Amino acid sequence: MNNVNFLALMGDDTADFNIVVSKENLLAFANLLILKDRQEQAEKAEQEQKQKVAEETFLTRKEAAAYLEVCETTLWKWAKPDCEYLLPVRVGSKVKYRKSDLDRIKLGRSRDNPV
Questions:
Q1: CA-to-CA separations, 36 to 9, 26, 41, in angstroms, rounded
Q2: Which of 48, 64, 72, 83 could be stapled to 59 by a disulfide with Cβ–Cβ 3.0 to 4.6 Å?
Q3: What are the structural domain ranges in the chain?
Q4: How much is the pTM?
């Protein structure tokens, strides 16, 4: 495995040479590339999630009721512990609703199956 990292450093396009690599080293190099790609994908997904959370819009109870065209009592019923159809977010003493949750309800999707 010690000699695998040097392959990544050979970027000279004018060089013409042959390399003999054992299958163990080739496998180790492939695993190194896969691991690096997975780490990059995980970092990208984490960054997208952070951006999504930062861009999340919250609506008041009144705004949410108007958006869904229901009364505020319906929102309250949907947020009850035995129903949990809609999970409110408490900001101090205020109750807010994620617009993404409201969109999910508007499109007829459940919390368990958001797609």
A1: 15, 15, 9
A2: 64
A3: 5-9+17-55, 58-106
A4: 0.48
